[in-house]
Structure formats: C-alpha cells, structure tokens
Amino acid sequence: QVQLAESGGGLVQAGGSLRLSCAASGMISSFNVMGWYRQAPGKQRELVAKISSTGNTNVVDSVKGRFTISRDNAKNTVYLQMNSLKPEDAAVYYCAYGPAMIGRPSSWGQGTQVTVSS
C-alpha cells in the first residue's frame, strides 16, 4: 500500500502560478509512475500529467507549455508547476501512484483544491 500526501493548492488569479507537491510513502516499487489528475465539478476525473521513475512523461495537450511535471526520486515526491493558470484549470487536483505508464493508478491522494479567479 502506498500513501500519498499532497500540498500546494489554493486560490490564484488568472495568469498566476501554483506549485503542487505530493510525497509518497509505504510500499514503493523501484519503478513507478506518479502523476496528477484533476476533477472539476460535474466533470470526470482527467489526467493532467504523469512521470515515471525513469523520467518518461505524459502531459495532456491542454496544459502543455504551461504546466511542468517533475519528481525527486530520492524523496519519492512529484511536483506540478502550474503557470499561466486559467479559470478552466480550476479543479480538485489528485496525486496518483501506479506501477506503469498505462492503466489506472493504484493509489490516490486526498485531493487539493485549485481555484483560479478571473
């Protein structure tokens, strides 16, 4: 079992920046994938970005050029730097952990709210 602890959400004006962090603990595999999903009210949870322990990334088109995912393997921590935020980026952001780049995550964080005012 892997536990995920997120931090960094909050309220920001459109065009502003936020940085999310997520630390994993527990039974962490040597190869793993950590990432961020988001869910806005009335919408399905969607992938934002993910990164493997070997550095492979998958970033959705809607945030490319604005969001950057990175990780510190020594700290089992993943980061999401969000720049040029738009009102449509507002959502609950969930950290996720899984064994592969494909398929569903096996563990989820509790979620952190990101609010973007226009």
- Structural class, by secondary structure, is mainly beta
Helix/strand order: EEEEEEEEEEE
The overall pLDDT, averaged over residues, is 97
- Quaternary assembly: single chain
Number of helices: 0
Give the percentage of residues in beta strands. Answer: over 45%
Strand element count: 11
Structural overview:
This protein has 118 residues and is an all-beta fold. 0% of the residues lie in helices and 54% in strands. The protein is built from no helices and 11 strands. The chain has strands spanning 2-7, 10-13, 18-26, 33-39, 46-52, 57-59, 67-72, 77-82, 91-98, 107-108, 112-117. Strands 2, 4, 5, 6, 9, 10 and 11 form a 7-stranded mixed sheet that branches. A 4-stranded antiparallel sheet has the order 1-3-8-7, with no helix packed on it. Strand 4 and strand 5 (46-52) form a beta hairpin. The protein is globular, with a radius of gyration of 13 Å.
Question: What are the defining features of this structure?
Answer:
mainly beta, four-stranded antiparallel beta sheet, 11 strands
Write a brief caption for the model:
The chain is an all-beta fold and 118 residues long. The protein contains no helices and 11 strands.
Note the topology.
Elements lengths: L1 E6 L2 E4 L4 E9 L6 E7 L6 E7 L4 E3 L7 E6 L4 E6 L8 E8 L8 E2 L3 E6 L1
Parallel strand pairs: 2-11
Antiparallel strand pairs: 1-3, 3-8, 4-5, 4-9, 5-6, 7-8, 9-10, 9-11
